[in-house]
Write a structure and sequence with these properties.
globular; alpha+beta; 140 residues; 5-stranded antiparallel β-sheet; HIT family, subunit A; 31% helix
Length: 140
């Protein structure tokens, strides 16, 4: 996965590849996934080219933050789904398959079978104390 090459999302944004657009503003584009996990599965992408969230500009992040709730509400209303997953992966080892930042909105229905299972373990409070302090300092 190379973050510097043209992606399928670039081709969708440029109109080279058609999509089922559900939302667009100056910074954000949303369209139905062509390989959906459920009816209404939507991808939401910034128009700014960026592979992962940590590289996204504050303006683009703000635009995504404003658009996502609106898009989620519309999908839930139109599909009738009562629950949904909002998924965003950063990097190939984290499950990202297209190196252009994107969010999945995946409606869940009573018959839905998709799953995102993880096996958590208890926190190490000693490590967590040091880690939280270091991250806090980095953000100051």
């Amino acid at each position: 996965m190379n973050g510097n090459s043209k992606t399928i999302f670039n081709s969708i944004l440029s109109g080279e590849i058609p999509s089922h657009k559900i939302y667009e503003d100056e910074s954000v584009y949303a369209f139905l996934d062509i390989n959906p996990l459920s009816r209404g599965h939507t991808l939401v992408i910034p128009k700014e080219e960026c592979p992962t969230m940590d590289g996204l500009s504050e303006n683009a992040a703000s635009s995504l933050g404003s658009a996502l709730p609106k898009i989620c509400r519309a999908i839930m209303k139109v599909t009738g789904a009562k629950n949904y997953n909002l998924i965003q992966n950063n990097g190939e080892k984290a499950g990202q398959t297209v190196p252009h930042l994107h969010f999945h909105i995946i409606p869940r229905y009573p018959e839905s079978t998709h799953s995102f299972i993880w096996n958590p373990s208890p926190i190490d409070h000693s490590d967590a104390t040091e880690l939280s302090k270091a991250i806090f300092r980095e953000l100051e």
